[in-house]
Design a protein that fits this description.
58 strands, about 5% helix
C-alpha cells in the first residue's frame, strides 16, 4: 500500500512539472527578465506662446524592455505627442500651441498579458515657468461624509465641512427651498467624498458661496468641483457644461462667467465629472463669491468644491464687471406695468430672451425718504399713467448702486429669471433671492418734471412716477412729518396718505394743521393703499410750520419701585429752541423739573402702588403725556422666561440668522417654554441667538399663554445689550387693538427692562407683545404677571 502511494505521488510530480513548463512557454519568454521603465526628464516647460522655456527641452526619452503606451490625463487635447505606443527605447517629441496657462499630466505604462507592470508620469507645463508653485487650500467644502436623513434646504443645513485659509466668513445662499443638500454618493474622480451633495431642484435654482477671503497675493487660482448630470430612466445623462455655468464676483452683485474643463468620469460613476478652472484675477480682491447657476432644473448635483492657489490662467476682471446679457430686446415700462398688474403671483417676463429698458431714478436716496430694496424708475419726461415701476430686491438697493434722484439707467432683465408681480397693489419687477436677475448701468442724468394731477381716481397707475397734487389739506392736528405710519391728508374730501420716514428734515419739521397747498412726491402703494412720498422737505414747503411742536417724549412710560428713584424723559419736536416746557398733572410722591429739553422725574416716599400721568407742554404749542407707574415689586411674576438661558428653547427652535424662520400672516408657530406655550409670528424671520430671542421687522409678535380664570395685569420685558435704540413695542389683544397701559414704548436704552401696567385686560384672554417699529427686537427676558 505504501509503495502504491509513492508511485502515485511520483507521477503527480512529473505531471505538475509538465504543466508549469507549458505555461511558461506561452508568453514568449517576455517575463524572463525584470521589467524596466525609465523616463527622462519628468517635466517639460513651455511658454504661453508654445515655445520651449530656456533650460527645458521639447521631448522626453523612454528606456523600456516591454511594450508601452502613453495617455494624456483629463483629455488635455492641447498636448501633441509624436508617438502614443511602442516597444523598447524611444524619443517622444512634445509640441503645444499658444494658449492660456495650463498643466497636463502624461502617463507612460508598460504591461504584459497579465496587466500593468510599471508606470511613470511626465508633467507638461505651458506658461507656468520652471519654478515650483506652492499650493494653498483657500476653501474646500465636501458637505460631510455622514448622509442626511432627508432633503434639507441650503438655509437649514448645518453639516458644513468648510476648510481652508479663507473660510472664516463663508456663508451659503440657496435660491429657493428646492436648492437643497441631500444624500448622494459622488464619484468619477480622485478624492470624491460621497455622503452628501448639493442638488439643484425646481428652477431656477442656484447656489452662491459668499465671502471667501483672499490675500492680496492670491490672484492665481484653481477651482475644482465634482458635478453630476442625471435624470432617472434617461439613457443620455452626459454632462453638458453649457447648461451648468459658473460665475465669480467680488461683491456678490456683479458677476463674470468662468470657463472650465472637465473629465469624463470613470466606469463606476460615468455621470460624475471633475471640473477644473485655472484663472488669474486681473486685480486682487479681498473676498470672492462663487455662483453655480444651472439653466436646467432638477438635473445637476454638486460636491467637493475646492479653491486653491495655482498656476493661474484665463484673466478675469472683477472690478465692476458683470455678466454680459445675451441678445436683449427692448420692453417698455408700460408693458411691464400691464403684465404685473394682471398677476398676483410672480410670472416670468420672458423665458427666451433678455429684455431691457431705460428710465430715470425717482427717489431722493440722499434725503433718505425712500423704502430700502426698492428702486423706483420712470420714463424720462413721463407725462401719463403707467410710465413708472418699482424694482425690488437686494441687488437693486439704490444706495448700494450709488443711484439717486435724476440718475438715468439702463436696466437689462435676464431671461427666465426676471419676473413681475402685483404685490398687494405694488407693481414690481423682481427675481428669486440670490439670483442675478437684472443688470443696472448708469448712463447719464435727467431732469424730473412732476406730473400735475387733479384727478386722483386712478392714482395707483402713477406709481413709480413723481407727481404734484394740488389743493391738499393737512389734518386738524399739527404733527412732525416723520411718523410711524402714513398721515391722512385730503384732496377735496378724498383721503390722501402722505408717508415720511423719521429721517433728515422730516424728523425735525412739523406741518401746519388745517392748511391747504401742493404736495410733490413719488407715488407708491403699501398693502393696496396708495401713498405719496415727498422726496425732500422742499416738496411740502406749503405746509411748513414755525409753531413749536412736541412730536414725542422718550420714554413715554416710567416705572418706579416703592423705594422711588430718579429717571429722565427727553422731549423731541420741532421749533422748540428757546421755548419753555411746562409740567403738570402729577402730585406727591411724584415730582418733575425741566432742564432744557430734559424733564427729570423723581419718586420719593411712595407707600402704595399707583399710576399718575405727567403732562409736558410747550408754550404756544401742544403737549405729550408720560405714564408714571409706581409698582410694588415684591410680587413674583406668574411666568418668567429668561431667553439668556439657551436650555429653555425647544429643540426645533431655529438658531442663528442663517436659519431664521418666517411664518405666514396670521399663522404663527407654537413653542413650549418651561411648560408654557407661546405663539411666535415673524414675516421677517425669528430665531434664537446668544442671549436673546430675535424678532425681525415690523408687526412681529409673541403671543402670551392664557391662564384659566386669570387676566394679564403686568408685563416686564427686557432687551439685549445689542438692541437697536429705535425699537418700539406695545401690548395688544389678538385683534391688534392696543391694551390700556400697553401703549407703544420706545426701548431707547440697551440692556434695559420696560414695564407695562395693564388695566384694560380681561380674564381668559390672550395678549401679545408686538413690534411697532421696523427694527429688530432682541428680547432677553419676559416676566408676565397674572391675577
Amino acid at each position: 500500500m505504501m509503495k502504491l502511494n509513492a508511485i502515485k505521488y511520483w507521477y503527480g510530480f512529473i505531471l505538475m512539472l509538465g504543466v508549469m513548463s507549458f505555461v511558461a512557454c506561452t508568453d514568449d519568454n517576455e517575463d524572463t527578465e525584470a521589467p524596466v521603465l525609465e523616463v527622462s526628464p519628468t517635466t517639460l516647460n513651455f511658454t504661453a506662446e508654445g515655445t520651449v522655456e530656456e533650460g527645458s527641452q521639447s521631448y522626453f526619452e523612454i528606456i523600456a524592455n516591454r511594450k508601452w503606451t502613453i495617455t494624456v490625463q483629463d483629455e488635455k487635447d492641447w498636448v501633441t505627442l509624436s508617438k502614443t505606443e511602442g516597444e523598447g527605447n524611444a524619443k517622444i517629441e512634445v509640441s503645444v500651441p499658444a494658449g492660456t496657462t495650463d498643466e497636463a499630466k502624461v502617463d507612460i505604462q508598460i504591461s504584459n498579458k497579465t496587466g500593468a507592470l510599471l508606470s511613470k508620469t511626465v508633467t507638461i507645463k505651458r506658461g507656468m515657468g520652471s519654478e515650483p508653485i506652492e499650493t494653498v487650500v483657500i476653501y474646500q467644502e465636501s458637505l460631510g461624509t455622514t448622509a442626511v436623513s432627508e432633503k434639507t434646504p441650503v438655509k437649514d443645513f448645518t453639516g458644513w465641512d468648510k476648510q481652508g485659509t479663507g473660510v472664516a466668513n463663508v456663508t451659503y445662499t440657496g435660491s429657493s427651498e428646492k436648492m437643497d443638500v441631500r444624500a448622494k454618493s459622488s464619484g468619477g474622480y480622485e478624492g470624491a467624498s460621497g455622503g452628501n451633495a448639493f442638488f439643484f431642484g425646481t428652477g431656477p435654482a442656484s447656489l452662491i458661496i459668499n465671502k471667501i477671503a483672499l490675500t492680496s497675493e492670491q490672484t492665481k487660482l484653481k477651482l475644482t468641483f465634482g458635478a453630476n448630470s442625471y435624470v432617472y430612466d434617461t439613457k443620455d445623462n452626459s454632462f453638458d457644461e453649457s447648461k451648468f455655468p459658473v460665475y465669480l464676483s467680488a461683491d456678490g452683485t456683479n458677476w463674470k462667467q468662468l470657463t472650465y474643463t472637465r473629465n469624463k468620469g470613470d466606469e463606476q460613476s460615468p455621470n460624475w465629472v471633475l471640473a477644473t478652472a485655472n484663472f488669474t484675477l486681473k486685480n486682487a480682491v479681498s473676498e470672492l463669491y462663487i455662483k453655480f447657476a444651472p439653466t436646467t432644473a432638477s438635473l445637476f448635483s454638486l460636491d467637493d468644491i475646492v479653491l486653491v492657489t495655482g498656476i493661474g490662467g484665463t484673466e478675469i476682471d472683477l472690478a465692476g464687471g458683470s455678466t454680459e446679457p445675451g441678445e436683449a430686446t427692448p420692453i417698455t415700462i408700460t408693458e411691464l406695468v400691464d403684465l404685473a398688474k394682471a398677476n398676483t403671483t410672480q410670472v416670468e417676463i420672458d423665458a427666451t430672451a433678455d429684455r431691457y429698458f431705460e428710465a430715470v431714478v425717482q427717489a431722493d436716496v440722499n434725503a433718505g425718504n425712500y423704502t430700502q430694496r426698492n428702486l423706483a424708475l420712470a420714463v424720462e419726461g413721463a407725462t401719463d399713467a403707467k410710465q413708472g415701476i418699482t424694482l425690488y430686491g437686494d441687488q437693486v438697493e439704490p444706495s448700494t448702486l450709488n443711484l439717486t434722484k435724476g440718475d438715468k439707467v439702463k436696466v437689462t432683465l435676464y431671461k427666465s429669471l426676471a419676473k413681475v408681480v402685483n404685490y398687494s397693489g405694488l407693481y414690481e419687477v423682481t427675481g428669486a433671492q440670490g439670483s442675478t436677475w437684472c443688470k443696472i448701468e448708469k448712463i447719464g442724468t435727467a431732469e424730473i418734471t412732476p406730473i400735475v394731477l387733479t384727478d386722483l381716481s386712478n392714482l395707483a397707475d402713477y406709481q413709480g412716477t413723481t407727481v404734484t397734487i394740488n389743493n391738499v389739506t393737512s389734518p386738524t392736528e399739527s404733527k412732525i412729518w416723520g411718523a410711524e405710519s402714513a398721515q391722512e391728508f385730503t384732496v377735496n374730501g378724498t383721503k390722501l396718505n402722505v408717508f415720511c420716514k423719521s429721517v433728515g428734515d422730516f424728523a425735525t419739521t412739523a406741518y401746519q394743521a388745517n392748511t391747504t397747498g401742493n404736495i410733490t412726491g413719488l407715488i407708491t402703494v403699501y398693502k393696496n393703499a396708495v401713498q405719496i412720498v415727498p422726496r425732500t422737505i422742499a416738496d411740502v414747503a406749503d405746509f411748513t410750520s414755525s409753531n413749536p411742536y412736541i412730536s414725542r417724549v422718550e420714554p413715554a412710560m416710567l416705572t418706579f419701585p416703592l423705594t422711588g428713584g430718579e429717571q429722565e424723559v427727553t422731549v423731541i419736536g420741532a421749533n422748540l429752541e428757546g421755548k419753555t416746557l411746562n409740567v403738570s398733572g402729577i402730585s406727591n410722591p411724584v415730582f418733575a423739573e425741566v432742564n432744557g429739553n430734559i424733564v427729570k422725574v423723581k419718586v420719593e416716599g411712595a407707600t402704595a402702588s399707583g399710576t399718575q400721568t405727567l403732562t409736558i407742554s410747550v408754550d404756544g404749542g401742544n403737549s405729550q403725556d408720560v405714564t408714571i407707574n409706581i409698582v410694588d415689586e415684591s410680587a413674583a411674576p406668574t411666568i418668567s422666561l429668561d431667553f439668556t438661558n439657551d436650555e429653555i428653547f425647544p429643540t426645533d427652535f431655529p438658531s442663528g440668522s442663517a436659519d431664521a424662520k418666517k411664518t405666514e400672516e396670521d399663522n404663527p408657530d407654537k413653542y413650549t417654554f418651561n411648560g408654557y406655550t407661546l405663539k411666535i409670528h415673524s414675516a421677517g424671520g425669528y430665531y434664537k441667538n446668544a442671549g436673546y430671542l430675535m424678532l425681525k421687522n415690523a408687526k412681529c409678535y409673541i403671543e402670551f399663554p392664557v391662564i384659566n380664570g386669570k387676566k394679564l395685569v403686568k408685563v416686564v420685558a427686557s432687551n439685549s445689550s445689542t438692541t437697536s435704540t429705535a425699537l418700539s413695542m406695545a401690548i395688544q389683544d389678538t385683534n391688534g387693538a392696543i391694551v390700556t397701559g400697553g401703549e407703544s414704548q420706545k426701548w431707547s436704552t440697551q440692556n434695559s427692562s420696560y414695564t407695562y401696567i395693564l388695566t384694560g385686560t380681561s380674564v381668559d384672554t390672550a395678549y401679545r407683545i408686538v413690534q411697532t417699529s421696523s427694527k429688530n427686537a432682541q428680547i432677553s427676558k419676559l416676566d408676565l404677571y397674572y391675577e
